[in-house]
Amino acid sequence: MLTRAVSRPTRGPRVPIATATTLALLAWAPVQAQQPSNDDSLQPPDLQAASAPQPKLEQVVVTANRRVEKLEDVPASISVLGEETLQRNNVRELVDIVNLSPALSISVGTQVGTNSINMRGIGTTSNNLGIEGDVAVLVDDIPYSQAQQAFKDASDVARVEVLKGPQSTLFGKSSIAGAVLMTTKPIGSGPMRTRVSLYRTSDHEYRASAALSGRLSDDVGLRLYASKTNFPGMLHNLTNDTMQNGSGGRSFLAKLQWRVTSDLDLMIAPHFDHSLSTGNTAAIIAIDPGVGYLYNKKYTALSNTVVLRGIHIGPWNREIRNDSPTGLESTDRGVGVRANYPFPDGSPLAGHTLTSITSVDNNLSNDFRDNDNIDLISTYYQVDASGKPSGIADPPMLNGTTSSKTSTQEFRLTSPDGGAFRYLIGAWASRNTIYRTYYRGNPFVKETNFTNYLTDSGVLNHAVYANTNWDFAPRHSVSAGLRLNRETNNYSFHTIDSLSSSAPTNVHTGEYYYVAPQHKETAVTGKLGYSFHVTPDVMAYGTASTGNKGVAYDMTSGANNPNVFAHLPLAAEKAVSLEAGLKANLWHNRATFNAAVFQTRFRDYQTSATERFSDGSQASVLYSIPSIQTRGFEADATVLATRALLLNANLAFTRATIRSWDQGACYTGATDCTIPNRLVPGAFLRDASGGSMPNSPKWKLSMGAEYTLPPAAWLPYPVAVNAQWRTQSAVRGAISQDPTLDRPGYGILDLGAHVSDAKGRYKLSVGVRNVLDKHYAVGNVGSFLNFKQTSGPDIKSYGWQPARDAFRYTSIRLDMTF
């Protein structure tokens, strides 16, 4: 992360930060306290840095405690990505944020809707929508109800804060491993101005956005933002000459700010997003020698030479053959309303601010997949018990529709920023309902695992919380927080029909309807911290915190089996975390250094896997891992080496492991499957205790530099050049510990440059991503397709899912303000 160099006073004793300024930085400020916009595209450039005799780093503020504070005053490990960093690195999606924050990683599932966010190596490893994410994502204080909502364009974002470790006390139960806070750009403080941004890459990605922002009157401000983006994809589908594993969408956001009275400010912010992601398809990279056949070796049309015709198999293959689309299409619409009431002077609560935040959000998504990964009609070649082909010429497809509706209401009373004792108390209520329909396979071909069902769940949450900070001595402070959460769950599942691949031919499960008893549960989470200011610019701290994530219900196709319901709901997941750290401003505020050590233990970690029951049936079921743990070390530093040279480095060393799990999956090739399966007498599993959590690199490093060249005769404007290097170690590919799914480490170098005119009206940026053209995967696929020979062992093939920047590409961007 690179931080813009500006001049500011050296850090002294704590000074109050006005509540109005706090709200302004959160982009919801009352008009009388509106600060100049930090949207550099809508404001003239800051020329003070060029003339200041003592250049210094820009002060970084965070909202981890629901009030704006200087980063060095908050006893927690937090990474902040400012607007310039986001713009310099062309951040569009969550994966771009992950690339800049070593504490974050992503687990890529078979479908985009099952991707998950990991913090310090911990995230949801299940493809079940009934399990909440472990990392919460909030935009302007409003949380996403489902993790899949985060995998879209991050529109009009001004700042991103990555809060590490359990954040349940202030941000709710879905932040048991951490939280990502996004703040959108504020309304401009002057007349209406327009910004247009255009972006294009050599591999055909484009982005276009426009923002109109400013004051309509002394009492009314408005910001409008619209964008359209598209990236065709990383894989070439030879069957229809299209690209796959791409993404894009269109967004519209608005903010209307109205000073109703001198003491009441109102902000209304509607939004609309439509996104289409065509992942997560894999391409074949290796296959055993020989010729084999899929499904039925009597029919040569399904030999591997025909199935893979035209595909140049190799380690970095990007060619596929699919006859059905794969992806996730999602539409999200909603509105947030925030009211701020600063209590007037003379009242008993003078200096306090009462904030009300109301939100309503509707999300409709459809996930679909080519279920056999080939472009031949495989169902036609399935055979019944007599050995005759099915005669069905329909491609096996997967389609699932999810409709979620979320409403929230929060009230917060915030004390003045000044003084030795500061506090915040709040009340929270939310209602979230999810309706899921799912259709997979063909009802007449059991090998397609035909399933047709609908399910719904409802969660009602009520919570009260408080957070305090007390400077009880000149250099000593304590912080404490507590949250009481009451959750009520409703759940039902309706199997319309299903045909298991293990069932006798055409013997259907039939219709089944299950309504779970209403479940109610109360949880208490808290945090306690101590900080010591060694000097006014150096602070050491220690914290302890707890987290709690609610119970889980099965909302996948595996729940068509009555055996599943006996294990529901899955117990709530809990966490206990310890952290110690150091924060310092050095060299007269020309350098910052932050470091932390941590350990977090999770109990009853929620995940899922396919199980076979004692009656011979099988289903994907939820289950808990008794204990997992993450611990490690994090450090980041920023140095303004000279007026023109800015350096930064971020490092995370993480060991995320399974502490106790004697019912681990028995993957193909495992030789230690000796633990009796508790669900299936006579079957065995393996003890996976001591194993690694998936998609959790042991170490991850990011380093960057920016150098501003002085104006020259050939170019009268300053030119800035930048470089960013990120690298990470190998990762375990699956929680089953299957070594064939492990992925090697990699290192990626990006270069860029930008130039702008003296008035800040135009800015031209160019870049080269993955300069060294180092290829790497976000997901590996073992046993991609298995071909049966007429005699001998099966012929196995393997696949990979390349990352967005797994191949070198160039970019150009133009920002215009008028």
TrEMBL record:
Compartment annotation: Cell outer membrane
GO CC terms of this entry: cell outer membrane
Alphabetical UniProt keywords: Cell outer membrane, Ion transport, Iron, Iron transport, Membrane, Receptor, Signal, TonB box, Transmembrane, Transmembrane beta strand, Transport
Signal sequence segment: 1-33
Gene3D superfamilies (UniProt xref): TonB-dependent receptor, beta-barrel domain
Residue intervals of the TonB-dependent receptor-like beta-barrel domain: 333-771
Name of the protein: TonB-dependent receptor
Organism the protein comes from: Massilia cellulosiltytica
